[in-house]
Amino acid sequence: MPLQAKPFAKIQSPAPGVLCDRYVCANDKGISRDLTEKYLGKKAAANEVLTSSDVDLTEFTFANGLFCDVKERLCREDRYYSANGQRSGAVSKKYTKLLFGE
Questions:
Q1: What does each C-alpha distance from 33 to 43, 48, 75 come to in angstroms?
Q2: Of 14, 30, 71, 73, which has the fewest beta carbons less than 10 angstroms from its beta carbon?
Q3: How many CA atoms lie within 13 A of 51 on its CB side?
Q4: Measured distance CA(52)–CA(54) in Å, rounded
Q5: For residue range 23-77, what is the model confidence (pLDDT) as tens digits?
Q6: How confident is the model at residue 1 (pLDDT cuts 50, 70, 90)?
């Protein structure tokens, strides 16, 4: 497990097609300010990442290290790359299904 990942950081699915950690919520379109506010409150929705226009909200890593990519429609155990330039994290079937329904 990557050093920055926090094994105690729980991922929850408060509704079909929604995943949240303690900081943000996302759906199959990416991190969502509206969903974050709905499930985590206004303070969480005011997060700098959610209000910045310079951030790609379609590739994201939850607090426990789980990485999801809307374009690939996959969630992986981590966000890192192998020597061949491909993502190295194992696909998480559980979270891919919860987020993308696949």
A1: 11, 11, 20
A2: 71
A3: 8
A4: 5
A5: 999 999 999 999 999 999 998 888 777 777 778 899 999 999 999 999 999 999 9
A6: very low
The answer to whether 32 and 38 are in contact (CB under 8 A) is no
8 A C-beta contact, residue 25 and residue 40: yes
CA dihedral 88, 94, 99, 100 (to 10 degrees): 80
**95: phi > 0 → left, psi -120 to 50 → alpha, else beta; which?**
alpha
Nearest to 36 by CA among 59, 62, 54: 62
Give pTM, 2 decimals. Answer: 0.83
**Rounded average pLDDT over 73-94:** 89
Residue for token digits 């379609």? 58
